[in-house]
Amino acid sequence: MTGLPEDLPTEPEDPRDYVPASPLPLLPAVTAAAPLDRSRHLLGFASEVLPDEVEALAVSRFPGAHWDVAPEGIDLISAPGRWARPGEPGVLRLTASTVLVGPYAPQFTDGFGTGLPDRTAYVFDVTCARDRGEPPYPGSGDRDGLGRAFPVGLPTGEEGIVVDWLVAAARRLAGAIRVDLGGAVSPDVTLVPDPDANVDLTLFTDVWLEPEAAQTLLRQVEPSAHLATTGVEWAGPPQIAYDPAALGIGELSEDQVRAVQHAADEVDMAFLSQPMTLEGYAVLVDLGPDGVVAVEVGAEPIVPLALEGLPWTAGGALAYHVRWEAPDLEASQREEPPLAHVLSRTRALGVVGEIAAALQHAVGGEVADEDGFLVGVADLEQEAE
To answer: Which pLDDT score is estimated for 384?
Structure first.
């Protein structure tokens, strides 16, 4: 007799777990024969991250990103060149010279581990052109650990773009990166970007909220929300404007002074007779010791790649930038910030998510994070909890 009794319940498989039908191949070993003009990095994820989620982040940043060889058992966004054979890794092409090969088992063929966290279930082997620039500036912020990983020269050019995306993808999907395999300057450096390091969100839409309406809406989320209308009263031109000698001109006759004043009055009246056009505004939310959240509203000519080509983004879009101003900017740029900053950031994350969700409910559109990846409604609600 095979199988289980009909009355014995079974636990369903987690539909998010990536469980390939065939055993994953092992990573090619690191050798000294690697081309000097090519860099090799590893990008690893836990089993609950599906390879098609990695593909989604690739097409969100790289135009034309696609699977040359699609791994088995995933839902595709882009059409594959072909499907992988059993036990064969996929090939995700970002650019003409940059590819992610995988998924691989997190172990090299020579038996060594990858140096990635224990939770890593599979790995992509990333190769791109090696392009290094100046070393990190001493004392500069290093939130993502790139200065620690590349102490001799930071990635620049295409490698800089690729490494920036690797960090962003690992941050979004709670993954990890091992950089510069076989490199002499940064051996065995692993980066585990903090998923909570990105706080700011931007809502892209084609609907304009009047300032008072935005203030009313956001006060339902945070009662302290108020329009940033405070300015400095203008005291007129500086005294130097009345000194012909300082301006490099001679003394003016009374007729010349009257002519200049008349011309200035005409310019002022022409400007004041035009209808006032509001191009942007801001709403501030005071979080007390946790800093300030600023909602800055205005036109945005550049939209994330995932939104390009839509009818309402043809000429750009309206952007509602929801930004957190941390009480300690220096702490916000540390790879391992102090506990006080982490606690303030956690509280700010909830407020930013709640504000973005309220705005999206009111004006529609799409929300993107700091890396330009789209954020779903469920993610916004989770941040707001």
So the answer is: 58
